[in-house]
Fold each of these.
Amino acid sequence: MAESIHKLPGDGLRINHYPMAARGFFRKYRTLTQWLLVATFFLLPFVKINGLPAVLINLPDRRFTFFGLSFWSHDTPMLFFVLAGFSLGLLFITSVWGRVWCGWACPQTIGIDGIFRRIETLVEGNYIARKKLQAAPFDKEKIIKKATKWFLFFLISMLVSHTFYAYFTGAGSLASMTLSSPSENLTTFYIVNATTLIILFNFGWFKEQLCTVICPYGRLQSVLMDEDSLVVAYDENRGEPRKDRKRSSEENGDCIDCYKCVVVCPTGIDIRNGIQMECIACTSCIDACDDVMRITKRPEGLIRYESENGLKGEKTIFWKIKTYIYLGLTLLSFLGLFLYVLNRSELDITALRAQDDPYQILSTSEDKTLIANHFTLNLRNQSSQEMEVDIIRTGEMEGSEIEIIVPTLPEIIPPGESIKNHIFIKFSKSVLGKKSSRHFKLQIMTKSESVTTQYIKEISLVGPI
Ligand code: SF4
Ligand code: SF4
């Protein structure tokens, strides 16, 4: 048989597929997971932590808020840890549990299985009724049902696209934009409507074709998985030969060839033909077959989560060098992210020696030589509040007073903004002792919402030997 994607026989036409709803152990927990993830998606833009949205990706202001913390465009290096952590985490999960992401957490599966197919079933009925309706001529009943279904699809697509946009604008601004005239926010209006149409097309019509034709992850799985990775698999040793009335029941395997596992499959494949790229590991065939096994009084698990080695009766080894490397690198990436966030100061301070002479001698007398050093000080407010910033003007070293002259401070820095100052540090040469340089701790004070914080920046004072 020529190799082709199931339900896309190669003539450019698609074979419509109407999967039966499966019921059982995995279905129950998949539904719970789906509701949890759907609720998280819809609620997250409305949840506030420390007065900030739980998640806000404000691209025009280059400000990103995650769970009470604000990040700015200059925090981009942090993205390395985020991307590395999630990519390596996915490698680790795939190498051990196969396509568990596809079946349990992928937005495409959740959208089709958890939302759109439920609406379709509500309006058009179960898989048999849906198939019959599709084949029926366009009479009044069909028109009403199809129109109702697509209207509800449109409403849910609008809701999803608006919620999605709220992640970029904040729930409050989206609400006020939605209530005002479209002409006042034309760009937003076009973006949200285009997103609505894409969602409607994808979940309403394109459906499982995204998994079987477009998604690169499905194609990558053969590289990431091996004979010890868990997959949804049919136990051929137990199932074959399939039921044949001409054979005695002892000669038959456990598979009664009822096709229930095929009828429930959202991508329309027959898992008994072996592991296939179109399998999204949704577990529906496990539930369907377990149901049959219970009825025929055979042990459950003819189709189950199993590794290729497990199917051959060999030991499955999950923990191997590859797995440890993936897990180690994932943990390292998240540790890097954690340390980055932990060490990230709300005030970013850069002190550079100004581009003139390294020092100036201001005055020389018998007992005292006065020196000045000139620095440029960059202060960036990395918090989400306005910040008043000032410098402690005096210091003491080796019994000599150090004077700090800052013509432009104190100043208020808005969130995410930075200011540049010139500072002059006046000190006696005795401060340096017999050396030509010495470290000095500059004390910078910030006041934000009446909370005062002190920061220390170490700089190097220089003078003649
Ligand atoms: S559901 Fe089970 S018994 Fe029925 S055809 Fe599939 S594998 Fe065989
Ligand atoms: S073969 Fe089974 S697990 Fe794979 S997509 Fe079909 S029903 Fe889901």
Amino acid sequence: MTLLTVSDLVVEAAGQQIIRGLSLSVNAGERVGLIGESGSGKTMAALALMGLLPEGLSLQGSIELEGVELTGLSDRRYSEIRGDRLAMIFQEPMTALDPLMRVGRQIRDAVRLHRRISRAEASSRMLQLLARVGFPNPAEQARRFPHQLSGGQRQRVLIAIALACDPALILADEPTTALDVTVQAQVLSLLQRLVREERSALLLISHDLAVVSSVCDRILVMYGGTVVESAPTREILTAPRHPYTVALLDTSRGISADGETAAGQLPTIPGAVPAWDQFPCGCVFRGRCPREQDRCREVPRLTEGEHRVACWFPFSSEGGGGA
Ligand SMILES: Nc1ncnc2c1ncn2[C@@H]1O[C@H](COP(=O)(O)OP(=O)(O)O)[C@@H](O)[C@H]1O
Ligand code: SF4
Ligand SMILES: [Mg+2]
């Protein structure tokens, strides 16, 4: 069953598009990854879905969650849906938590915001949530302030806040990027286990293909504020079709643009992600794409089906990224 459908979403600043016709869907209980280099528009897309776009940006298109159109909702109605059916975990937990409030109270307030229950019931739910996210001594943790916790512990608190009202969909924007590698793995496996147990859907946003592919059933590849490829995780890894996806895979496997394995240096995709107002017309990957031809001056549409790609000259569906 489709939970979230985003259609032709456009976010503009001063008449220039940052999100360019973004379309995606997430099914109930599904774990979907959204991947792309820094500057691809992932955070902007997440903020648009949460109804939290920065001042001065305009939004067009449709965001439908459980059959309810979210664009155009009043701030009050949107905030009712946020945290109740839709929750977000941010990259830097320190900015998402109130530094002056004990973490237990922050979780309890999140529980009470959307449920008419007593303070005592909310407190007991808060302690349960702290235990669920892996604190062996919830009552003691509840009394701490955010600065008294480690980065991994703060991220667990944010996960507890996100779970507070059994949301249908959790958006997690680079939830482990700021953490050490070992803590990253623990937080990811906790998130994965909890969304499965809660039967929530997850939209996991990351620049790191390894993170997304370890957790998600399906991957959306984003570039220039639009989805350029969408397929089940295994297909993205074994039979990528869009030149950008192929380049992302090569860099994550340590292969540089000339096909050689780079020794001792991090390979990158040639060229840089343009500033949001500097993308070429036509296909957004023009200028960095080794397969570019004249036709690429027209915008390629995302194809239909299970494996979707927006490119005039994609790699063949036979696999391996071969032509
Ligand atoms: N308030 C804003 N006004 C205009 N452009 C912005 C604003 N915030 C971010 N951007 C631009 O939008 C583009 C996408 O940014 P972002 O969504 O943060 O990318 P990602 O999360 O994929 O790294 C970037 O070029 C960024 O500079
Ligand atoms: S449409 Fe053209 S420029 Fe864009 S990714 Fe495909 S081949 Fe490259
Ligand atoms: Mg981001």
